[in-house]
Write a structure and sequence with these properties.
The complex is a heterodimer of chains A (256) and B (310).
Chain A: H1 2-17, H2 20-41, H3 47-80, H4 83-88, H5 94-127, H6 133-157, H7 162-187, H8 192-204, H9 214-219, H10 225-251
Chain B: E1 5-16, E2 25-36, E3 40-44, H1 51-58, E4 66-71, E5 74-75, E6 85-88, H2 100-110, H3 115-128, H4 144-156, E7 162-166, H5 174-189, E8 193-198, H6 201-207, E9 210-215, E10 218-224, E11 234-240, H7 244-254, E12 264-270, H8 271-283, E13 287-294, H9 298-308
Parallel strand pairs in B: 3-8, 3-9, 6-7, 7-8
Antiparallel strand pairs in B: 1-2, 1-4, 4-5, 9-10, 11-12, 11-13
Helix pairs in contact in B: 2-3, 2-4
The chains are: A mainly alpha (256), B alpha/beta (310).
């Protein structure tokens, strides 16, 4: 079973890196990181912070965009192209297939993330902007966030068309970044119903803002290790949770 | 082991729920058939009869609504035994950025072929399907015929005991069809059981041992290609050197004029009439050149089955 998962993951990476569409998206992200240099020159103060803020923002935005774009097509393309027929007729369980595709896509995204990180580091060094452990933590958490985004995009891809899966994924991504603010808003509200609803939304939906430490990294603020540890555990749990639901949905599906 | 049941389908029912699933459409109405080890089995039927749906149930791609389907004694929902089967879908499409060699290596790994044997096995299979020259070319550059052959190659790369082929000759020119037919016969000669879904009856007649005809989700016939049900026992008798008075006698008896008068005539007769004619011809000094059992061809049977289902 592990052999099949590894073979599918490697094949997914190989198929993805030979697809030119991805290079276009990575190219745009690199252009955006490069543009941060231009934007920083527009300001007389805190040029380094603006440069890194824009650079990290570009990495997170394009990373999530590529994750959703590839994730929502992950299963649909296999069914559409009927490649899934030849794979599932082999001694490969549906869970192994899903796990292999997921891991392959995460590996592909991390490869692209590494290219964007390298561009960010080079631009920072060339501009004299300081780099520290905070940047490494922030970028590491971006990697975890991408794994979560791929997990829920894979779940939606297991039962919906790419368009609907993309709508659901973008929606969940946005909600995931707002749940913490919503909870804070609820805590300050006089309405008990709103406060409780906000708490439940924060509990049910993934709190993606826990994986966003770019402000601390850019401003050189401390990032408490327990919070990083908790974010990693939560990120892993969300990935597993979404994938388990995806497997249950996928197991019941007919490939007509 | 010869004669052992490899595929057993009993009372298989499949319902689809189109749209929002409020109504259901039955596409398989409790079909039953079996395939035995070592045979080439033709599963034939008109478009929309349920051939591909049946095959997808056997491949675990869709779930049966009721009934039983077993391969090699295992329920089709199981996965491990699939090492022993190979499947080539109709008009296969693969990861087009990969080469023929890469895709076959990938499928070999999925089937747990030992890593040390994969390269040799891939080379052998590329040779078997006549694609040795194109192994390093990307699949996007392959023609339809080449993709059909790589589809069969991925089905046999792990040396399975049973091979399922969905419309293997579909869209191929006569040369391509013959090559695939020859390949199927070669695989069968190696001891592999072949299950073939097709609507090209001439191919079935040439290579299949037994067939099942499915019409509107029901099995209309299953059995060997000789002795179809409802077939009349007829003989084609060819006589030569007939005396003129004997010709007249025969014409009077059959109520028809014979072509070729006295030189060489061929008549299609029932068994009793054939016996009487042969005896009389021998007495009258005519020469019996040939007596051949006449058989309905598969097309006749197929069209009869379709007609009866209306």
């Amino acid at each position: 079973m592990r052999g099949a998962i590894a073979a599918i993951a490697v094949n997914t990476v190989r198929d993805a890196v030979r697809n030119r569409v991805l290079y276009i998206l990575v190219f745009f992200s690199l252009v955006m990181i490069g543009t941060s240099v231009v934007l920083a020159t527009l300001s007389y103060v805190e040029r380094a912070r603006i440069l890194q803020d824009v650079g990290l923002g570009a990495i997170r935005f394009f990373g999530a965009a590529i994750a959703i774009f590839m994730g929502v097509n992950l299963i649909h393309r296999e069914v559409e192209r009927r490649t899934i027929y030849t794979i599932l007729s082999k001694p490969v369980t549906r869970a192994s297939f899903l796990a292999g595709k997921y891991l392959g896509l995460v590996a592909t995204l991390w490869l692209q993330l590494a290219i964007m990180m390298l561009a960010f580091v080079l631009v920072s060094l060339a501009s004299g902007a300081a780099l520290g452990a905070g940047h490494a933590i922030a970028l590491g958490l971006v990697a975890v966030e991408l794994a979560v985004v791929v997990a829920f995009a894979t779940l939606f891809s297991s039962f919906a068309t790419p368009f609907l899966a993309a709508c659901y994924s973008v929606g969940l991504y946005l909600v995931g970044h707002l749940t913490r603010d919503l909870r804070a808003l609820g805590a300050g509200s006089e309405s008990e119903v709103f406060a409780q609803t906000a708490v439940w939304i924060h509990r049910v939906f993934p709190d993606l803002s826990a994986l966003n430490r770019t402000i601390e990294a850019v401003h050189g603020l401390p990032i408490p290790p327990p919070e990083v540890g908790w974010a990693l555990v939560a990120g892993l749990a969300w990935c597993l949770g979404f994938l388990l639901v995806a497997v249950v949905v996928f197991e019941r599906r007919d490939f007509r | 082991m010869e004669g052992e049941t490899i595929v057993r389908v009993e009372g298989l029912v499949k319902d689809f729920r189109p749209g929002f699933g409020l109504t259901k459409r039955r596409v398989l109405h409790g079909i039953t058939f079996e395939v035995r080890r070592g045979e080439i089995f033709g599963f034939i039927g008109p478009n929309g009869a349920g051939k591909t749906t049946t095959l997808k149930v056997l491949m675990g791609l869709i779930r049966a609504s009721a009934g039983r389907a077993e391969l090699l004694g295992h329920a089709v929902s199981e996965s491990e035994f699939r090492r022993e089967i190979g499947f080539a879908p109709e008009s296969p499409y693969f990861y087009e950025f990969l080469t023929g060699r890469e895709i076959l290596s990938f499928y070999a790994r999925l089937c747990d072929v030992a890593p040390a044997q994969i390269a040799a096995r891939v080379d052998a299979v590329l040779g078997e399907v006549g694609l040795s020259h194109a192994g390093d070319a990307r699949l996007r550059t392959y023609s339809k015929g080449m993709l059909q052959r790589i589809g069969i190659a991925q089905a046999i790369v792990h040396d399975p005991a049973v091979i399922f082929l969905d419309e293997p000759m579909s869209g191929l020119d006569p040369v391509g069809r013959k090559e695939i037919r020859d390949l199927i016969v070669r695989l069968n000669a190696q001891g592999k059981t072949v299950f073939m879904n097709t609507h090209i009856l001439s191919d079935v007649e040439m290579i299949c041992d037994r067939v099942a005809i499915i019409v509107k989700g029901r099995i209309a016939y299953q059995g060997a290609l000789d002795g179809f049900p409802g077939e009349r026992k007829l003989f084609d008798v060819t006589l030569a050197s007939l005396p003129p008075d004997f010709v007249e006698e025969v014409e009077a008896q059959l109520g028809t004029k014979l072509d070729g008068r006295g030189e060489r005539v061929t008549l299609r007769l029932a068994e009793k009439e054939m016996n009487e004619l042969v005896q009389a011809a021998l007495v009258r000094g005519a020469r019996i050149e040939e007596i051949v059992r006449h058989r309905d061809d598969l097309e006749t049977l197929f069209l009869r089955a379709v007609e009866e289902s209306r």
